[in-house]
Amino acid sequence: MPVNLDALIRYHTIDKCLQNFYREWTWEDLAKACFDALDEVRYRSDKNTVSKRTIENDIKVLRSNILGYNAPIVCKKGLYSYSDRNYSIKNASLTQNDIRNIALAIETLKQYKGFHFFDNLKNAFESLEHRVTIQLYKNLNKFIHFEDTYLPTGTNYINNILDAIQNQQVLKITYQKFDSEVIKKNTLHPYLLKEFKNRWYVLGFNPNFDFLKTYALDRIKEIEILKTEIYQANNINAQSFFSNVIGVSNPTDTIQEVKIIVKPIFSNYIKTQPLHHSQVIIKEDERGLHIKLQVVHNVELETLICGYANFLVIQHPESLKKAIKKRLIDALENF
To answer: Which domain of life is it from (predicted)?
Structure first.
């Protein structure tokens, strides 16, 4: 049963009300408390009160095992209360399936190491585990092997950069490219954090360039907040901005239609593991699977295609075909 945020807020508000045994609670009282709680959390364009039917349905869910609450809610003469004064939905026991799902989520979220919320989530889970005395989290690795992820350098800057983005602060970053011994100081108006292949990048505006710049966090030596600089805002949405980009390079370049024929032996793999979320199947014939992508031509796209080069035939654009051919010819000189 999917539960939206408004419903969860109402459940916890009703629970909080019913834990107060020093007053009586009518459905109107609960509805007003729920409305006030919802109004605090988010802006509501409609100012309609929570209806009696909504409260009755919420109480029905709380009393049931649908969400595992089984709340002992009683109603006498129109007044609601808990029959067990020690009860709260916050103390509701987690099932083994709940713990297993949380454990899987924790393992998956390891890729976000560097964010404070990961540490908080892990601590919260360990607290839950101790309370219900279930060791599924520790035993999980006996049955499931997750891909090992190392913690790259530079992740210690993630929270500082995220704070700067949210607070609209300008940064001075001391930066050194991998292929250079020169260390430079750059002024950056940070807009987005981007993760790609276990490396973190920050994208933003550098006044010395007329396009947005991307900096790898593992090449940053130092970060300083420029308190006197005026932040130049940019309403970039992370999801849409990188929607047609593989990786982080040249995100503002022109989006191109890339047409590829995938050889029959590899067709099923590409069907289940698309090269990009924009992948569309045009047709399938004796030559193979004909697909097209809507992507920016950058170095990451070339690297991806080179990894499957013996299974792919680039039809369009010609510039991409030439770039891949040059890469493969250069690679042959190494063998």
So the answer is: Bacteria
Structure tokens at 321: 């075909």
The structural architecture, per CATH, of the domain 5-91 is Orthogonal Bundle (1.10)
Spatial distance between the Cα atoms of 285 and 269, rounded to a whole number of angstroms: 16
Query: Which amino acid, 246?
Result: I
CA separation for the pair 190, 206 (Å, rounded) = 9
Residue with tokens 């454990």: 103
- pLDDT per residue as tens digits for the range 242-284: 899 999 887 778 899 999 999 999 999 999 999 999 999 999 9
List, in order, residues 6 or more apart from 122 with CB less than 8 Å away.
106
| Cα 319 from Cα 326, distance rounded (Å) | 11
The Cα diameter of the chain in Å comes to 88
In the CATH hierarchy, which fold is given to the domain comprising 255-332? Alpha-Beta Plaits (3.30.70)
- State how far the Cα of 42 lies from the Cα of 6, in Å rounded to an integer: 10
